[in-house]
Protein: Cysteine proteinase inhibitor 1-like
Organism: Ananas comosus
Amino acid sequence: MRSFSAFLLVSSLFLVVTITAGAAVSVHHDAEKPLNSGGWQPIKNVSDPHVQEIGKFAVAEYDNKSKAQLVFQEVVKGETQVVAGINYRLTLKASGQVKIRGNGAVVVGEYEATVWEKPDGTRQLTSFKQV
């Protein structure tokens, strides 16, 4: 009887650990499908306010670091990757002033930005380039 009780205790602990570990990986980029750790998964709804906020953050950080004067327009597509937090690789549109023959013109371009959102909610721009 004692060994059966020990077996039940060990089995219960294993079940709790398994469920807890599974819950830690169940971060969703949409309500339909959980992300797999390590692989890039497409973002199905780039209109999601959080995704648009990440795009706006990327442009603001790039402007701050490079002294550029881009203005965020919208995220047009993206992917996420589960790491220690979530990487967002976004294709976004931004506009900026360009001098052409002495006159200013507004040009809209596409850029690829990668932002790492840490579990505590802080963000870091890890790459930004024109595509």
In short: Strands lie at 40-42, 71-83, 85-100, 103-117, 123-130. The first strand starts at residue 40 and ends at 42.
